Amino acid sequence: MRSQLSIDFLFAIALISVLSVGIISIGLQENEMANTFSMATKIKVLSITVRDSVTKAYSMGPGYSIRLNLPFSVSPSDSIKVTINGTSDLVQIYSTIGGAMYYTQQKLPVNVISTSSVILTNESPEFWIIVFYNASEGGLDVKVSKSPNFS
Fold it and tell me: Are 103 and 82 in contact (CB under 8 A)?
């Protein structure tokens, strides 16, 4: 009788252990999914911020510039490429963060002529949106740059 009780006890402990490991595994997966969703949301908010800033700068006219910073921190191996695409009038953001790749885009409500890009890292999280008169195309244009100087 005594050995029967200990075998039942060992079986119960093994069953509880298996269930506990399963529950912990599900919790870790959900945490990872939440972190991925959180970063995707931050990238989407950045694209909306850039779109709105381009629109505001464009409305102010040539010579106006806006300085933006990444609203979140990234690790040294991460990078974010912000592109203003003049062909399709889109703000496009390509990023590699924590080994995962993210992409989002926003349609610009204003027409831009040229395409420009900046790459943001943890060491250089700042960039500028610059409005200038594009003489060759005869209209206002917007670009992103690492410096506020038009060049």
Answer: no
